[in-house]
Amino acid sequence: MKNADELKRLVREKYSEIAQQSKSVNEKSCCGAGDCGTVDYTIFSDDYSGLEGYNPDADLGLGCGLPTEYAQIKAGDTVVDLGSGAGNDCFVARSIAGESGKVIGIDMTQAMIDKARANAAKLGFKNVEFRLGEIEDIPMGSNLADVVVSNCVLNLVPNKSQAFSEIYRILKPGGHFSISDVVIEGELPVSLKADAEMYAGCVAGAIQMEEYLGIIGKTGFEEITVQKKKTIQLPDAILLQYLNEEELEAYRQGSIGIYSITVFGRKPARESRCQPGNGCC
């Protein structure tokens, strides 16, 4: 596996390519970026088409859940979408938050930001904005968001503890998040975990579900709840790029599970976590 800077570069490159393609192209290719490869970037995605606010131009088929369905967004809320891509979840969130709300999308890939801004302009939305930035250093002030959502993105972040610390920082006291992400139970084959391409495809970057929930708890969040859990089945055509037939059979018969989860957490209404400036550290 590459180091954190190399992984971020890989993710930017892959998702810059994907940003230039339609959902149908992504789904027809055997990987999201290019004609063929080892990763299918759309195999985790759920169907958004029945949700209010859905815009086909913003749907690249890259999520692994429907976090906005579980996010308890209310009219007037300020909603932040981390890893906003072409704007899909932002536009669904905006349909709930309404004209009196505000939606901010954050993405580390300039091509995605450009695509999302173009989509927002076509829709005439004045209360949806997109900012270039990383989840480990979110480009906005503290205590501003009522709700944070994210869809299959935190697994691409090398420092997940720092990412959740930033989510905690930007949420208002009493605010909450609903995040869809990929986690694992059991040990993935070494060849899958070691391949950087599978990291960008959301598999090698996934961590144990217990560890994932533990990071959220250590950050200081309360009411941590797995709102949805869905099994992800990787096609044999992808697995055989990494495993031989014997290893594939062992993988299928083993206790390894890859899951999409949607998890909820709330920032306490009263700050109890020690932070610089509040007298405890």
Could you describe the 3D structure shown?
With 281 residues, the chain is an alpha/beta fold. The chain has one domain: Vaccinia Virus protein VP39 (Rossmann fold). It has helices at residues 4-19, 23-28, 67-70, 88-97, 110-123, 160-170, 190-194, 196-200, 209-219, 236-239, 245-253, and strands at 78-82, 102-107, 128-132, 145-151, 171-185, 222-231, 257-266. Strand 1, helix 4 (88-97) and strand 2 form a beta-alpha-beta unit. Helix 1 runs parallel beside helix 5 (110-123). It starts with a helix and ends in a 15-residue tail after the last strand.
CATH class: Alpha Beta
Class derived from helix and strand content: alpha/beta
CATH superfamily: Vaccinia Virus protein VP39
SSE order: HHHEHEHEEHEHHHEHHE
Strand order of the largest sheet: 3-2-1-4-5-7-6
**Strand content of the residues, in percent?**
15-25%
Indicate the radius of gyration in whole angstroms.
Answer: 18 Å
Main sheet attributes: strand count, strand direction, barrel closure: 7 strands, mixed
The span between the termini is 36 Å
The CATH topology name reads Rossmann fold
What's the CATH architecture name? 3-Layer(aba) Sandwich
Estimate nothing, just give the exact number of structural domains.
1
Helix proportion of residues, in percent?
A: 25-40%
The helix tally amounts to: 11
Which characteristics define this entry?
single chain; 281 residues; alpha/beta; Rossmann fold; seven-stranded mixed β-sheet; 21% strand
Topology (SSEs and partners):
Layout: H1 4-19, H2 23-28, H3 67-70, E1 78-82, H4 88-97, E2 102-107, H5 110-123, E3 128-132, E4 145-151, H6 160-170, E5 171-185, H7 190-194, H8 196-200, H9 209-219, E6 222-231, H10 236-239, H11 245-253, E7 257-266
Parallel strand pairs: 1-2, 1-4, 2-3, 4-5
Antiparallel strand pairs: 5-7, 6-7
Helix pairs in contact: 1-5, 6-9
